[in-house]
Amino acid sequence: MSDALRILxxxxxxxELVQRDMAEPFAGTSLTVSRAALLWVLQSTGPSxxxxxxxxxxxxxxxxxxxxxxxxxxxxxxxxPHPTDRRATLVTLTGxxxxxxxxxxxxxxxxxDDLVAELAPAEEAALAAxxxxxxxxxxIMLAAARERKDMP
Length: 152
Fold this sequence. Notes:
Elements: H1 3-23, H2 33-45, E1 48-49, H3 50-57, H4 61-73, E2 77-81, E3 89-93, H5 95-115, H6 121-150
Antiparallel strand pairs: 1-3, 2-3
Helix pairs in contact: 3-4
């Protein structure tokens, strides 16, 4: 097996493990991975319109409406009128949403520390740089594939 295949297999295995691990904390709660992703966007951007959330999450506005409806019903977010655009509504984290995000940020930081605990600083830096290059390259490959698909 080539090094390239071993790297791809390793990345895929890691992606599967992370995906499985991400879903576990939400078992028995009203949160799903998609709802948590919306909370992450609000955590990083602050109050946002549903259109901005749809763009950030790369989903349809209809999909965001369902996510926001569910998160509002569970008490994680609230809707409020936009201060300068009467047609828009802002989605904001509630106290519960802020508490949940504090926990998720702490868990993310702990997971990152635990994951790289056995790497030397030079290995950690090299891995971070290599993963960035792989992700950048994959984005280029996906964009090229979309362009080919859209060509007549």
